[in-house]
Amino acid sequence: MNFEKYKCNxxxxxxxxxxxxxxxxxxxxxxxxxVSKILTKDKEILITGHFNPDGDSxxxxxxxxxxxxxxxxxxxxxxxxxxxxxxxxxxxxxxxxLYNKKxxxxxxxxxxxxxxxDFNDESRTEFAAADLKNSxxxxxxxxxxxxxxxxxxxxxxxxxxxxxxxxxxxFIEMMNFKxxxxxxxxxxxxxxxxxxxxxxxxxxxxxxxFKVISELLKFGIDKDKIYDKVNNNFSLKRLKLIGYLLYExxxxxxxxxxxxxxxxxxxxxxxxxxxxxxxGIVNMPLSVSNVNVSLIAIENDxxxxxxxxxxxxxxxxxxxxxxxxxxxxxxxxxxRIYKAYAETEKYIIESAKEYFK
Length: 357
Ligand SMILES: [Mn+2]
Known about the structure:
Blueprint (H helix, E strand, L loop, with lengths): L7 E3 L13 H15 L5 E5 L6 H16 L3 E6 L17 E2 L2 H10 L2 E5 L11 H6 L3 E6 L10 E4 L6 H11 L8 H14 L10 H11 L5 H9 L4 H14 L1 E3 L4 E6 L1 H6 L7 H4 L11 E7 L4 E7 L5 H8 L3 E2 L3 E6 L3 H16 L1
Parallel strand pairs: 1-7, 2-3, 2-5, 3-4, 5-6, 6-7, 9-10
Antiparallel strand pairs: 8-9, 10-11, 11-13, 12-13
């Protein structure tokens, strides 16, 4: 299929130079007009989230999946890697297929349109990135991370939004698909917004976000149950791991109000560490009044995985870009260190001292 390449970036801030003459309203209209042209019932649609999908990527992708399915589109949903255990209850999770070089190439190649939910660059899909890049499909990105890749055909990205899930809701609304939303879709989108805002404690100060929440509640979703399923759904071993990390491993660099924890492969095995387990743990040191930045370093086979959280104006996106080959949002970011585990601690301390001094 040969679509006319048309770039459209909806960004409330930081609008690209090449489209600086467009108003935001025009941009929204153009984006919707162009996507409406290509999004037809005869197309094969594929939705994908990022590697190690979190609540936002899964909730947004599944919310879009349910809605497009209800509207009568041919749609499938993929993730580049497995879901964390506390997300497997999401309605539609059983319909997700996991990317696999041998079995997924066909699905990627046969797609006419691919939706990217909650990531700004194909490299964030890791092993699936090459196949996605090579696919002839039209790529539509629904995201809220800074600096989206120029290679994407249609981008609806706004860093002011709480989550990609909120963007998905706005997309559904603007496409006139709200009539196809149901309780399952609303549950997924709500979960995405709730998890990405850390239960509405960050990135959720715009009144519009709560208008979306209000719309979602009208579908009869069980907000309290969703909170419980997401936050009280872990193993006993994970709780013991948290106790161990906070008591034995958490260290503070007081002169820069910086906290870090290192976890070795051996410790991961001992506590049966699961994908996604670190998500809640990295936030915990921020409960200390004079800790402004928290880092967790997890030993992997090929690199040390870094996860960062911060308060207010402490920018861990830039910090990670500079020292840890990563990025993300101002108050939540990830990265990697390609060093031996034994050398990593010194590097982390020195990076923090240099950057936050
Ligand atoms: Mn997100």
